[in-house]
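Let's practice the habit of predicting before peeking. Look at the sequence and jot down your guess about where helices and strands might fall. Then scroll down.
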Amino acid sequence: MKINFDVDKNEVLRYSGQKDGKATPQIEKLAESYAEKIKENISPRHIAARFNLSQMKDGVMLSNGILLKGNDIKKHLSDCDECYIICATVGIQADSFIRSSLAMGSIYGLMADAAATAAVESYCDSVENELRQQLKKEKLYLTWRYSPGYGDFPFTQQPEILSMLKADRLVGVTCNDSCIMTPSKSVTAVMGIAKNKPAARDRTCDTCPNKDNCNFSCRQR
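Done guessing? Here is the structure:
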């Protein structure tokens, strides 16, 4: 499945910690430049696997026997009988690009990192939208994506999720003993499949379940 997506200069600014409207013209120009450069230094890939699910006392059980733990993921999937689990990455080239940019100076490394983050998030948005369009044919709806580390959905489930998806073999994503993924600009997430349209979510820092543990929101204050 080919996924078309773009990288927004404003997202690069946000991920680099620039407050709204406060960036200098030089920083704005640099962000715009890196929003373009990152496109030449990524190779986006993803997996999307669909599972039936059952509500359990301490989380959600997938049809393959994997328990997604925590009350927050249980709440997220409370109106769903199925879910998609995805792994998406923009590839190891992005990590190389960040390192080479950092060698030019800290501001360049910061912008490269922010651009790569903006790229993987934009790619995930596009994957999510593609899955949503496919589900429309079944008269089903897709919730927004929820990742390990949000709320009480444990970050330590990352290796189990990657193994379940065969992410190493299929998209080249692994994680170490600290559950940190390689390539670094990779995302795993769960999205519920519902028979009724989920309530719209205001995607702001105030409504994010990870708002108290996020460097990006702190930089906006």
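How did you do? The beta strands are 45-56, 59-62, 67-69, 80-89, 141-142, 174-175, 181-182, 186-194.
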